[in-house]
Amino acid sequence: MAAPSLAANCPQTVQRKQAADADAFLSKPAIARANLAVSTAKPEGTVEAGEKFRDYTVLQQHVLFWDRDADGEIYPWDTYVGFRDLGFSILFSLFAMLVINFNFSYPTRLALSWWPDPLFRVYVGGIHKAKHGSDSGVYDKEGRFVPQNFEDMFSKWNVTHSGSLSAGELWRMIKGNRLAADPFGWGAAIFEFGTTWLLLQEDGRVSKEDLRQTYDGTIFWRIKKAREQGKGWHKGFGLRDLVAFRGRRINRSLLDDVLSSL
Question: What does the pLDDT look like over 192-224, one tens digit per residue?
Answer without folding.
Answer: 999 999 999 999 999 999 999 999 999 999 999
